[in-house]
Amino acid sequence: MAKIDFGGVIEDVVTREEFTLEKAREVLKNETIAVIGYGVQGPAQALNMRDQGFNVIVGQSPEFKSDWDKAIADGFVPGETLFPVADAAKKGTIVQYLVSDAAQRILWPELKECLNEGDALYFSHGFSVTYKEQTGVIPPSNIDVILCAPKGSGTSVRRNFLAGAGINSSYSVFQDYTGRATERVLALGIAIGSGYLFPTTFEKEVYSDLTGERGVLMGALAGIMDAQYKVLRENGHSPSEAFNETVEELTQSLIRLVDEKGMDWMYANCSATAQRGALDWMPRFRDAVLPVFKQLYENVKSGKETQRVIQALSQPDYRNVLEAELNELGNSEIWKAGQAVRKLRPNHKE
Ligand SMILES: NC(=O)C1=CN([C@@H]2O[C@H](COP(=O)(O)OP(=O)(O)OC[C@H]3O[C@@H](n4cnc5c(N)ncnc54)[C@H](O)[C@@H]3O)[C@@H](O)[C@H]2O)C=CC1
Ligand SMILES: CC(=O)[C@](C)(O)C(=O)O
Ligand SMILES: [Mg+2]
Ligand SMILES: [Mg+2]
User: Could you state one GO biological process linked to this protein (predicted)?
Assistant: First the structure.
C-alpha cells in the first residue's frame, strides 16, 4: 500500500497503479458478480464493471418497473443477465447488495437463503451490518463480507468513469472466510472504477457517511444557503441578487477554485476586502455550528439517525411523502430563482 501524508498524518492508500485493472481481472476471472438493486449505485457499478470486462448480472424486483426497465435499456437481458433478486443472488459468487439501506433490512431474510459457502457479500455502506440490532442483517459465518463505498453519487461514479476519471472509495473487510476477502474487495473497487481506495471499517464508514450527508454535503449546505438567502430577501434584495450571492457564484466560480487548489487558493483569488471579511467571519460560523455537528455525530453513533431512516422509509406512502418534500424544496423561491438563473447561462441545458 502506498503511504500518503494527509496533512501530517500518514495513511495507507491503494492506488490503481499498485492494484491494476489486469490484476483485478485475474482476481475476479471466475466470479459472477450479481448486482442486486438497480437504483442509483447499482447501475453505475454494474455498467462500469461490465464495460471493463467483468462478468456482471443484475438482480432487481420486477415490481419496481422503472428500475427493471432501466436495466433492460442498459442492455441487461431478462433470463440471461437480468433476474429477480433471489435468482440473481443464487447465481452470484459475489453479491453486491445495492438496494436502499431500508430495503436491505426487508429483503434480508430472502437474500441470506441465497448465499452459498465462499460467496462474498458486498455493501457500499456500513449501515446494515453496523446497526444489526435495528436491521437484523447478520451474515452467515461461511462467507466473506466486504465493503466498497464510493464517495460520491452513483451518477458521478458513472460520469467520472466515462470521462476517464475515477471517484475515490473506502473499503473494508468485515469477515474473511475464504482468505480472499481483501483481494476480492480491492479488485471490485478497481472494477467499479475507483480512482483510489482507502481503508476503513464498516463502523467508521457509516458514521462518517451519515454525518457528511446530513452535514456539510447536503443538510448543512442547504440550511446555510437558505438562511443567507432569507436574510438578503428580508433586507429588500431581489431573488436573483440573493440567489447569485448565495448559490450561483459558489457553484460557477468559488467552489471550483476550492476544488482546484484548496480554500486558501480560492481566498487568494478573491478581493482583499473579501479575504479580510471571510477570515474574520469563518470562526464565528464554525463556532455557531459546532454544537450542531456534535449533536449530529452523537445521533448517528447512538443509532437515532438510522432508526429514523428505517422508520420513515418503511411507511407505505413514503415515496409520496419524499416526493412532496422534494417538490416543496424545488418550488421554494430560492430554487425557483435558481432555475431562472440557470436558464440565463449561455450553455444552459436543463
Ligand atoms: N445513492 C448513492 O449514490 C449512494 C448510495 N450508497 C449506498 O448504496 C446502496 C444502494 O443505494 P441507492 O443506489 O441509493 O439505492 P436506492 O435507494 O436507489 O434503491 C435501489 C433500488 O432498490 C430497489 N428496492 C427498494 N426497495 C425495495 C424493496 N422493498 N424490495 C425490492 N427492491 C427494492 C429499488 O429498485 C430501488 O431503486 C445503499 O447502501 C446506499 O447507502 C453509497 C454511496 C452513494
Ligand atoms: C452520495 C453519497 O455518498 C451519499 C450522499 O452519502 C449518499 O447518497 O448516501
Ligand atoms: Mg456517501
Ligand atoms: Mg450516504
Answer: isoleucine biosynthetic process
- Residues serving a catalytic function are 125
Encode pLDDT of 123-176 as tens digits: 999 999 999 999 999 999 999 999 999 999 999 999 999 999 989 999 999 999
Quote the ipTM score.
0.96
User: Ligand 4 being an ion, which residues bring their Cβ within 5 A of it?
Assistant: 209, 213
Residue 322 confidence (pLDDT): 97
Is 325 annotated as ligand-binding?
no
Q: Are the C-beta atoms of residues 137 and 107 closer than 8 Å to each other?
A: no
- Domain boundaries for CATH 3.40.50.720 within the chain: 2-200
Nearest CA to ligand 1 atom 14: 40
Query: CA-CA distance, 96 to 100, in Å (whole number)?
Result: 12
DSSP string, 40-93: SHHHHHHHHHHHTT--EEEE--TTSHHHHHHHHHTT--BTTTEE-HHHHHHH-S
pLDDT digits (tens, 9 = 90+) for 305-332: 999 999 999 899 999 999 999 999 999 9
Task: Write out residues with Cβ below 6 Å of ligand 1.
Answer: 37-42, 60-61, 64, 67, 98-101, 103, 106-107, 124-125, 127, 149-150, 153-154
User: What's the pLDDT tens digit per position in 248-296?
Assistant: 999 999 999 999 999 999 999 999 999 999 999 999 999 999 999 999 9
Q: Which CATH class is domain 2-200?
A: alpha beta
How much distance in Å is there from the Cα of 221 to the middle of ligand 3? 15
